[in-house]
Structure formats: C-alpha cells, structure tokens
C-alpha cells in the first residue's frame, strides 16, 4: 500500500517547518490547534498559541524545555498508560515552570496480554471499522482524562497547554477532534489535522518500528507494523460520524462522559476562540 512507504524527506522537512507544526526539540508530531475557522460561529477561529498536541515528551531536550516555556505552555497532559511508560522506559520529565499531569485513558488492567493482542490485531487490519472499535474504546474510557483537559481550558483561558499520548495519533487525535468539533470546525479540517500525524511521526520512523518489532504480532509481520503509520482522513471522518450516531454528538458526549454542564461547555468553546498570536 502506497501510504505505508517512507515519505520523501524534503517534503517532511518542509511540512514540519511551517504551521501548524511547532518545534520542540526531542518531541515529535507537535502542532498548534489554533487557526481553524468555525462554521458554527462565522468570523471566529480557534485561538493560536493556546492548545497544542504532540507525541510523548519523555525524550525532550533542554532546548525543548525552553521551547515549551517560550510557547507559553504551563501544563502538559499525558494520556499514556502506566504500562506504556514502564514498557518503553519513558517517564515524564521535569520542566521548570510547567506542571505535568498523568491522566491515563486506559487503566493498567486494560493492558493485559489478551487485551493488547486484540488491540494490536485491530490496528494491524488497517480497516476503518477496526479503528472505530478502537476509537470507541477510547471514548468509553477517556471521559475522566478528557474532562481534565477541558476543565483546564475552562479555567485558564490565558495559559497554554499541550496533551499527548505515545505517538500523538489515536488518543491525542480523539481529544483534538473533540476540541475542534466543539469549536465548530468543519469535518474536513478536523480530518486534515488528524492526517498530519502521518508527517509528524516520520522523523521517529526507525524508533517506532524498533518498538513494534518487540511485539510478537509485528515481529513477524512487517506490513502490519507499517499500518501503524497510517493516518487517513477517512478514518477521522468515520470517527466523527461515530461520535454523532453512537454518542449523540460532541456536546452530549462531554456531558455524559466528563460530567461538564452546558454552561461549562459554552465557556470552554468561547475560550477556544480568540485572536492571540503564536509566540515567537
């Protein structure tokens, strides 16, 4: 399949050098969720320099820590499980002036060998319906974690935050979609944001493949491992349909799974709009 092949390095470098990607040394797939126009609130766009998404920050360098501070980020939300942190020896770092909060989507018991084997089989299939089963699991388990991020946005309209999982693709992608959908960003732009992870992960391709080959399913099936790199727009479009049909839409999901009120939702939505510029 063509989207499993390595991307052209010059294309990757050029894409990563411009928005919405931001540079944080030691962290891949970091980008700004600002600048997307709202179709439900004409004339408004999501606020640049306010909410960021990325892959894990465990390998952040001193330069990266300074870049985090320069971006105005005061809070980092880690969606990874305890199992992942231990398995990959990737603990949260310490960053002066920045609070790092571990809010796992999945509990340790969700990472039993049986559960992980099933989850990897779903990933390896590459089928949209398999990803919908995975993303439904994320929605079902992620309410408390996603609620923590939403409450920060509600209570800290003048502070920036970043949230991440291991690759910055699935759990992070679901959270990003929730925020953008709440702001009224159209499905095409949300799907495009999701697809950018294909480029954002490319610099860590060798590291990711090395990790995957430690898993029995992927050790003997290279193509299945490569499927983990896919970030197709149609996958996110299917997810947004799932969010509407199974969960009643983004607002109903937030009310039912994070226990935030209509008033909270309105404050969060209003806080995501603005004209602040990206820090230089």
Automatic annotation (TrEMBL):
SUPFAM superfamilies tied to this protein: (Phosphotyrosine protein) phosphatases II
Domain Tyrosine specific protein phosphatases: 129-201
Pfam family, one: Y_phosphatase3
Any one GO molecular-function label of the UniProt entry: phosphoprotein phosphatase activity
Protein name, entry field: Protein-tyrosine phosphatase-like protein
Source species of the chain: Lentinula raphanica
């Amino acid at each position: 399949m063509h989207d499993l092949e390595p991307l052209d390095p010059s294309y990757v470098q050029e894409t990563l050098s411009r928005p919405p990607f931001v540079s944080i040394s030691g962290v891949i797939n970091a980008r700004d969720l600002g600048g997307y126009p709202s179709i439900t609130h004409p004339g408004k766009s999501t606020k640049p320099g306010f909410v960021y998404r990325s892959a894990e920050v465990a390998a952040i360098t001193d330069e990266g820590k300074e870049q985090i501070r320069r971006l105005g980020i005061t809070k980092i939300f880690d969606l990874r499980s305890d199992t992942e942190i231990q398995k990959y020896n990737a603990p949260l770092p310490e960053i002066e002036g920045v609070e790092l909060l571990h809010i796992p989507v999945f509990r340790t018991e969700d990472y039993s060998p049986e559960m992980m084997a099933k989850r990897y089989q779903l990933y390896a299939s590459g089928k949209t319906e398999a990803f919908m089963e995975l993303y439904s699991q994320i929605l079902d388990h992620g309410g408390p974690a996603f609620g923590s991020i939403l409450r920060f946005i509600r209570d800290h309209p003048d502070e920036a935050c970043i949230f991440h999982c291991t690759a910055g693709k699935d759990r992070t992608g679901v959270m990003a979609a929730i925020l953008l959908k709440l702001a009224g960003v159209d499905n095409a732009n949300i799907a495009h944001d999701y697809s950018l992870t294909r480029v954002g992960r490319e610099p860590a391709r060798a590291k990711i493949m090395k990790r995957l080959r430690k898993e029995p399913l992927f050790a003997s099936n290279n193509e299945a491992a490569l499927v983990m790199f896919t970030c197709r727009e149609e996958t996110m479009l299917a997810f947004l349909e799932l969010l509407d049909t199974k969960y009643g839409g983004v607002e109903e999901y937030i009310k039912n799974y994070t226990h935030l009120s209509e008033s909270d939702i309105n404050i969060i939505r209003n806080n995501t709009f603005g004209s602040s510029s990206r820090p230089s």
